[in-house]
Amino acid sequence: MTAPRNDRRIIIHFDYDCFYASVFENENPALKSLPLAVQQKNIIVTCNYEARRRGLSKLQLVSEAKRILPDVVIVLGEELGRFRNASKALYKFIENFTWSGKVERLGFDEVWLDVTDLVDYNQALLNFNDLSHSFFQLRKNDPTEGFPYDATSVAGHTFPHNPQQDSISRSSSAIPTFDPGSGNDLMVRLILGSHLAQYIRRSLEEQKGYTSTVGISTNKTLSKLVGNVNKPKGQTTLLPPYIITQEGPLPDLENPVESNVTLFLDSHDIGKVPGIGFKMSQRIRNHVLSRPAEHDEGLIYGGTKESVTVRDVRNFPGMGPELLEKLLGVPGAERGLGSKAWNLINGRDDTEVQQAKKVPSQISIEDSYIRLDNMPQVLKELRILTTSLVKRMHVDLLEDDDEPDSEGIKRWLAHPKTLRLSTRPRPPQNADGARSRSFNRISRSGPMPNFVFNLKENIDATVEKLVQVALIPMFRRLHPERGGWNLSLMNIGVTNMVEAASEDGKGSGRDISRMFKKQEEVLKEWKVEDKDVPPDPILKSMAEEDKKRFDAKRAEPSAGNEAPFDTLIGSEDMMIPTQNTVDESGMWEDDEEDEENRDMCHRCGAVMPAFAMAAHERFHTLEE
DNA sequence: CTGATTGAG
DNA sequence: GATTCTCAATCAG
Hints:
By secondary structure, the protein is of the alpha+beta class. Helix content is 35%, strand content 17%. The chain contains 23 helices and 20 strands. The protein has a six-stranded mixed beta sheet with strand order 6-7-1-11-12-10. It binds a DNA duplex through residues 15, 19, 40-43, 45, 59, 61, 77-78, 80, 105-110, 274-280, 282, 295-296, 331-335, 360-368, 418, 420, 422, 439-446, 489, 491, 493, 496. This is UmuC domain-containing protein. It holds the Pfam family IMS.
């Protein structure tokens, strides 16, 4: 029915302490001794521990934070580039320690590392006659690189808590807590994992300037959760036994040995288990409490929060994968959620630590707004967002070409095939008291025009074209009404990455059968310096004359100060003849006599003259 | 494939 | 359940 435990891996989970604040502290060490908070829009997204000690917390209103702690140093953290760069550097640093390449990032500030192979190797190296003077080898076949350690005791904290050990954990003497020769394999492996974790953690602090909180266990869920026991700057190992064992031939009902996994998980609120989020925990809570769980009122005013713990759920009559499946299996939900949740509740998690990926599967940029309700503003914001997005694509999807004699040449690691525009309309407030529902995002997507991959073109020109030929039409599909909308958010993203063949021939996503599909074939070895641009759905859809204008512009020799695209074709109210255009008054321009000659593609929504549709259709046919 | 939902930090 | 600005997985159609 339910799979048995598998505790053969050793997984380390890293969580950098108050990451955003640490990035600023590393940029400017003088900040380290001050209470520091990082602001995005109107909220404090995180703050350092000095600020927390003095009463601040995450996700507080800026006004509230200033009231509580007028001295607080507040820095703006809306620009995420610095965090992304720091996160990548730390991730690369940690990646150096793996042999398997299993290093997975979660957000900017968490990393899982599967060190099973290093632990296996070093376990075999143990000399049982002198365990307290062991040496941890970081590289196979190199006995010199590594560190000495005491294999008779766990490094750092443990769960369950061991007061004796913890009280002197800051001193250098280690307390022998376990004899690895006695046959408890899991214990030995966790000890090795804890020492490796400590070594990496210290390296991270000494060489990179970042402190971290670490958990060591046998899967992702447990390692992540157990790390939280000692933070910041701590590490915690979840000790065996992980399964309930009974001594002797008969179960000793008087003295059952409890699994530390259950002991550890049971006190957690059900919603604290990674993978069981707000919706799932609400549904489980409702069932266990036999009534809708109180939320806002109970939480804020009464302080009578009804907490439903993992233990409450696990011990609830009839609880198991089947009941959970019924509770969680609403239409549209992931199937098999019941077993998944049941496994998580029991600390079973067989999901692998993902291999390091060369390219993200999507990149998106967004901003939120107090009021965004007219086209000129939308246009302005679209340009800003698109500029960031194109720059992000250059940073994240471009790599230096390693071919000889190709100095400074960049090549695309992957081409996103899809461009997406999402908005979040402000909830329509009904005067008649009915609750305004659906705070959700809506989106439209379409083919990514290939001109964005042309690096010879000015970024501003690329951005302007993208806005005009792709984003404005998408915006129109999202909001066909001329007005009346008010957006609280806009997001632009690229998805559907097609990875280019890697140069060393052993690239990650290399799959011959998939690579020879038409689209991939065309994109495969395409490099920036190539003259030919892959077939472009947008440009192809344009009338011939317009295409010539674009081509003429592209072929123009750059004479020092090249005028940007929009100044050549017309600035603010420029016309892209194949698209309906927008003027600064924010009205859709409807050219009456032109209207009947236009057509919209039923597949991608592109608007074009009727005579261009045939060629456009052919493009789509080729795509399939 | 698209568009929505859920979960994560 | 929402605030910020993301990213991944997964579903129905």
